[in-house]
Amino acid sequence: MKSLLFKVSSILVMLILYIPVFFMAGSVFANNEIYITQVGTSNNFTLDITQDGDDNVVQLSVSHDNNTIDIDQEGNNNTVSWVSYWGSGQGWGGDLDGSGNTLKFEQYNTTGSDANRIGFHINTNDNTVHICQGKTFDDSTDTTCEATSTSEYGGHTVNLDLHSGDTNLKGSQETDTGNADHYAQIYTYGGDNNDIFFKQSGNGNKTLNLTVRTDNGEQEVIQAGSGTHTATVDLTGAYTTDLSLTQNSGTNQSYTLTNNCQTSSGCAISVTQE
């Protein structure tokens, strides 16, 4: 097992052990930038990155199997492999091309002002992805985020492109102290048996766009707390994809649902507005 611990704060940059990973880091004060591209043929490495402060950037590309990657950013206007969209003329954000990997991204906005952003593209099968912005996973089956502060100003954004199968995605966005909005866009295609759980909670407006162009998956979306809730869900696979959508707010709640189900037994769709 190869391990890398990379910590960036206002006073410390520390490298414990070299692995086949290329990186560059900027200033040791905020505005740090880390670019990591896995090279060589090695699998089974562990990468931990912690950044404290504002305006930090991690760009990450992994092309091998059975790796464990944990990125933790605390501050505001921090990004992990962020791009606003994928397509012609747009470079990739974070890129995962190996199988059997575990990715855990945590972002906490403890100072208010600007939001934090995550963008990632997964191009292979059998991966586990946990994204925690703010804090809180409340099922399905919870692996609790580990917030270090009780002040969470929110305003997080995530953009995920899952060109994969047998992928387990669990994500959450939460605001406690502030009223900043949350936005999540998740697009899946190219492989089946993907399970997605995503929860937006706390203060502020919540927007989620989910497109599933694969089959035999279970999708659960929860929007809870104050503010306007908006969900757009497009299920266009040919076979069973089950959806549970819950919106719980004292103000406006709205959703748009498109479903194409061709199985004789039907597909399970549950929408609850409380």
List keywords for this structure.
274 residues; mainly beta; eleven-stranded mixed sheet; flat
Fold topology:
Elements: E1 2-8, E2 13-15, E3 21-22, E4 33-38, E5 45-52, E6 57-62, E7 68-74, E8 79-80, E9 94-96, E10 102-108, E11 117-122, E12 128-133, E13 157-163, E14 168-175, E15 182-189, E16 195-202, E17 206-213, E18 217-224, E19 229-235, E20 241-248, E21 253-259, E22 269-273
Parallel strand pairs: 1-5, 4-6, 5-7, 6-8, 6-9, 7-10, 8-11, 9-11, 10-12, 11-13, 12-14, 13-15, 14-16, 15-17, 16-18, 17-19, 18-20, 19-21, 20-22
Antiparallel strand pairs: 1-2, 3-4
Characterization of the model:
With 274 residues, the protein is an all-beta fold. It has one domain. The protein is 0% helix and 50% strand. The chain has strands spanning 2-8, 13-15, 21-22, 33-38, 45-52, 57-62, 68-74, 79-80, 94-96, 102-108, 117-122, 128-133, 157-163, 168-175, 182-189, 195-202, 206-213, 217-224, 229-235, 241-248, 253-259, 269-273. The strands form 2 sheets. Strands 2-1-5-7-10-12-14-16-18-20-22 form an 11-stranded mixed β-sheet, with no helix packed on it. Strands 3, 4, 6, 8, 9, 11, 13, 15, 17, 19 and 21 form an 11-stranded mixed β-sheet that branches. Residues 1-29 have low confidence and may be disordered.
